[in-house]
């Protein structure tokens, strides 16, 4: 059945469809150079409080509304995605697209993927089409390296994918584990800089040295024997040690593309490296950053770490510190949207 013919399988489409799509942290690749023939494989965590919220509704003429201060290319990206969706589905009636909010772009939250998937899901719902997430991702060119954003959109939680398949097929999901409810993530945001993206990212990846097979094996060992069982059993120490080790190894590999450091922002690095030994946190940088994270076993320990870091003078005044929980469910579709809620809390 083609997408265009799917319209007849749904009796009525909502007048307005609002999708709330979760952000994710990319915790690292396991094998960037395919030492066993399969490249990348990713570990990621879906988080609360940094959602991308997109609504699509029928309109007399096309309109795209984005928040003030949004990146210049966001409106153009939405327009391109709409053109692709229309071409593939045959649904060409005018729509009003509103981006109600989302995390900062190029900061390590997977905002580009969540925007594309949220738009595709809302577009489909508005037209009475049941569009599969993986199909939307393929149409809108998402998931070329990592599949955690795609799986996170559907299911949330801690995710491990197996890297892109033959001919660049969307990475398969190998493991999905509910993130312990008590654990918290301290996000350290430096909004003065962006992580690598687009052409600059591709050039940087191409210039990196081959990744040693023995290090790929060590990363797999850390994930399979520390991170995943630690999460399943809510055993924080091995989880945190595994994440920090993974981040150190993969961060050292990507350091030449980031000025010689595993962190894009020196200010973010200062906070996290101060917190880790004092609170046994799992620390690192999401993707190319600049956002860093410290995972701690409770909200109370997170608050203690933030207060102590501020008192020690290691928090640059320009940084924004945000405490969030893991999110164990994926995107949500609402065909009767009310005023969107942000849900994030500053520390």
From TrEMBL:
Q: Which InterPro entries match?
A: GHMP_kinase_N_dom (IPR006204), RFAP_synthase (IPR004422), Ribosomal_Su5_D2-typ_SF (IPR020568), Ribsml_uS5_D2-typ_fold_subgr (IPR014721)
Report the domain of life of the source organism.
Bacteria
According to the UniProt entry, the coiled-coil residues are none
N-terminal signal peptide: none
Q: Which UniProt keywords apply?
A: Kinase, Transferase
Q: Which SUPFAM superfamilies match?
A: Ribosomal protein S5 domain 2-like
The UniProt record lists the GHMP kinase N-terminal domain at 82-149
Q: Which PANTHER family match?
A: BETA-RIBOFURANOSYLPHENOL 5'-PHOSPHATE SYNTHASE (PTHR20861:SF6), HOMOSERINE/4-DIPHOSPHOCYTIDYL-2-C-METHYL-D-ERYTHRITOL KINASE (PTHR20861)
Q: What is this protein called?
A: Beta-ribofuranosylaminobenzene 5'-phosphate synthase
